Amino acid sequence: MPGMADPAPLALSSGIAKRAHRLADGRELIYFDDADTTLPPDRAPDLRVLDDRPPTASMRQDPLTGDWISIAAARQNRVVMPPAALDPLAPQTADNPSEIPADYDVAVFENRSPSFGPALPAPGDPALAAAHLDGIGLERSAVSFGRCEVVCFSPEHEGAFGSIHRSRARTVIEAWADRTTALSALPGVRQVFPFENRGAAIGVTLQHPHGQIYAYPYLTPRTQRLIASVDSYGPSLFADILASELAGPRVVLAGEHWTAFVPFAARWPIEVHLLPNEHAADFAETSAEQRDELAVLYLRLLRGVDALYDSPTPYIAAWHQAPVGTHRDSIRLNLQLTSPRRGNDKLKFLAGSEAAMGAWIGDIPQRPRPSGCAQRSRRQMRRTPHELARR
């Protein structure tokens, strides 16, 4: 029933607990409790009276590119930069009927105004066929099947992933792995994408520390291009990139299980990629040891980027995962952290060449560093990743 809890919490790795609930309108809400949580096991039900969920959006195909555009009109009603007292991601109070009825460590819930879903294709629906969106036609449309979820990193009103503590970071990573498994199993879902948008310059509408997960009914254009590259180069593409970077001057952080580096052909003024040293197609395939180390290195990376300037750096943290059911042995889980910030008070805007033609022009060249700088950069990041790559 809406607002009621699953009576059987699930124990995950590293002592993290998962507690499934439902919101008043039937949306899924899941609490992930830190291994060292101080919260009680019981959570209050959602007693709000809510309107019906908006209908599932539709998609339209651009016949010039083949891209599918989701038309999600309900997103126009999103809250924009509310005061802390009306934070929709904070725990509910008598004066704030927010989305989360109880205090929490990490909370994941279905987006109230999603770009994809909540509808999913039924058995026998042609949308279950992997090729049902292939081809080009005029005025083609389709249902925006899928799922969009919000991942709250903390009950605090302000912050980002880099502002949470190590235990909490480990909980978020566990939540990403859990949700990747669950969303990949939904009918019609072909790709699962966890990400965090940070900062007003990126278009963020809430200051609350949170990210999102999209479960798409198609392979995104970026993934289609990646698949073409893997098919052209060979299945060892990611392994060979990592080996090349480990032997070169652009590594900024390295551990036993993960390596972060400035990519050879960076598009953005600040751009860092992070790869697992051993193959994992997505978060669900990572080991407990990989997740433990990631909780440390990822915080160091984000805090290092924030230390570049006197104010927090806007960024997109995009966790690219292998698609569901294809290229699982050749496409590796990878973070692409990008920021348009090219100076203390300067941003890179996508104008004619980038936005209209997809032809990128980089602003900052990369030059080799003297030996020994890699070790210093692993201890701390004092400059932009591109500057680290040239020092």
TrEMBL record:
Top enzyme class, one word, equals: transferase
Domain of life from the UniProt record? Bacteria
- Compositional bias per record (Basic and acidic residues), positions renumbered to this chain: 43-54
Q: What is its EC number?
A: 2.7.7.12
Q: Which reaction does it catalyse?
A: alpha-D-galactose 1-phosphate + UDP-alpha-D-glucose = alpha-D-glucose 1-phosphate + UDP-alpha-D-galactose
**Where in the numbering of this chain does the Galactose-1-phosphate uridyl transferase C-terminal domain appear?**
236-329
Q: Which residues form the signal peptide?
A: none
- Give me any GO biological process, just one: galactose catabolic process via UDP-galactose, Leloir pathway
| Keywords recorded for this protein, A-Z | Carbohydrate metabolism, Galactose metabolism, Metal-binding, Nucleotidyltransferase, Transferase, Zinc
Q: Which InterPro entries match?
A: GalP_UDPtransf1 (IPR001937), GalP_UDPtransf1_His-AS (IPR019779), GalP_Utransf_C (IPR005850), GalP_Utransf_N (IPR005849), HIT-like_sf (IPR036265)
Task: Spell out the residue ranges making up region: Disordered.
Answer: 41-63, 362-391
Family assignment from sequence similarity: Belongs to the galactose-1-phosphate uridylyltransferase type 1 family.
What this protein is called in its record is Galactose-1-phosphate uridylyltransferase
Q: Which organism is it from?
A: Gryllotalpicola protaetiae
Lineage at the top is: Bacteria, Bacillati, Actinomycetota, Actinomycetes, Micrococcales
Q: Which gene encodes it?
A: galT
